Amino acid sequence: MQVRNPKARKGRAMDVIEEVRKSVSRLCAEFPNEYWRELDAGRGYPREFVRALTDAGFLATLIPEAYGGSGLGLMAAGVILEEIARSGGHPGACHAQMYTMGTLLRHGSEAQKQAYLPQIADGRLRLQAFGVTEPAAGTDTTSIATFAEKRDGRYVINGQKVWISRAEHSDLLLLLARTTPRNEVARKTEGLSVFLVDIREALGNGLTIRPIETMMNHHTTEMFFDDLEVSEDALVGEEGKGFRYILDGMNAERILIAFECIGDAKFFIERATNYANDRQVFGGPIGQNQGIQFPIARAYADMRAAELMTHEAARRFDTGEHCGAEANMAKLLASEVSWRAGDTCLQTHGGYGFAKAFDIERKLRETRLYQVAPVSTNLILAYLGEHVLGLPRSF
Ligand SMILES: Cc1cc2nc3c(=O)[nH]c(=O)nc-3n(C[C@H](O)[C@H](O)[C@H](O)COP(=O)(O)OP(=O)(O)OC[C@H]3O[C@@H](n4cnc5c(N)ncnc54)[C@H](O)[C@@H]3O)c2cc1C
């Protein structure tokens, strides 16, 4: 049915998104907090959960219908990740398939889209690894040293990446490498290229992956490239334009992470509220004390404000409007509120907040990452200072 009235069309789109939210919530109920707790204790990967999410089509939300996905857009994708986090799960195990998609959709060739997207949509292929960060370059992405040299119709890749998450649980890697040395380009943002690397073929043939243990169960790794050969067809878009392609995808990534943080904040606020109502100390519920009640109320107000910014950023992204400022502000506000809500939730639980069986300490460890990755708070503030307020560039 075609809906001509724009208000009715918007209403229908929101109905679809609310349906998606309910379906994801039902699916998450089959993977209770014990499931995530055990994975966290054993550093396991949620294979069954990711399989169920894929089979239900949720990880193909951003893939257009023509390639086997549902093409529902970023708002729907965000709501899926939010719902996983709200249920007590850890969307970090599978979110990259959502945020790497934009680069492939916008800049991949038709042949690449035909070859990969239907297989990603139905779960035969996993695109869960995104390789940008390097040990020496850090946040200064244009300083990366991993180099892809063109030789006899192939690219030979040498270098090292760090913090590349899910590489051991992905078939494909979207990789950023230099193809022209930095001192040979007019602008440092030029001469970088994006490749779609088949990890299954590369492993043992020039690619080594080494896991890094972290404070939460995030499956992150170091990657070493030693004369790894990939075909010319692995290049995404034009050689030398990769930095722009990656930047394009970063707004999507920031908005999706903001949704996850909103989900975490909702988890903490709900848990804190329930406990504050139930726990009796000094003959009454602890929630009657303003010292307990007000921080929860404050976290709720802050979460709702961050949620509004996140929805505005997603709406702009989905309608093709500029969304750089909103995407950055959403990520900044949501990552801070999820941490504060978690701290409040832990304080509300007293000693029990530290018990693994309550899942609060686990979720607090998981949500802390988002003030650092995929971009740290300082870098967001620098973006707002320079690009929104017109203050002098600091680096
Ligand atoms: C668990 C985990 C998973 C990750 N997954 C991935 C992944 O899948 N793929 C990937 O490519 N990367 C990934 N990352 C990397 C992540 O994006 C980076 O850690 C993050 O961008 C910060 O970079 P850095 O660690 O090199 O910090 P640095 O750049 O060394 O910065 C250190 C600190 O200095 C501050 N700082 C730096 N420059 C300035 C400045 N000019 N002004 C003010 N402050 C500044 C930063 O804000 C930060 O707090 C992951 C990281 C972690 C920890």
From TrEMBL:
Residues 129-227 form the Acyl-CoA oxidase/dehydrogenase middle domain. Keywords: FAD, Flavoprotein, Oxidoreductase. GO terms for cellular component: cytoplasm. One of its GO terms (biological process) is fatty acid beta-oxidation using acyl-CoA dehydrogenase. Its cofactor is FAD. Residues 18-123 form the Acyl-CoA dehydrogenase/oxidase N-terminal domain. One of its GO terms (molecular function) is acyl-CoA dehydrogenase activity. Coiled coil: none annotated. SUPFAM superfamilies: Acyl-CoA dehydrogenase C-terminal domain-like, Acyl-CoA dehydrogenase NM domain-like. Residues 240-372 form the Acyl-CoA dehydrogenase/oxidase C-terminal domain. The keyword Flavoprotein applies. Gene3D superfamilies: Acyl-CoA dehydrogenase/oxidase, N-terminal domain, Butyryl-CoA Dehydrogenase, subunit A, domain 2, Butyryl-CoA Dehydrogenase, subunit A, domain 3. It comes from the Bacteria. Belongs to the acyl-CoA dehydrogenase family. This is Acyl-CoA dehydrogenase. It comes from Ferruginivarius sediminum.
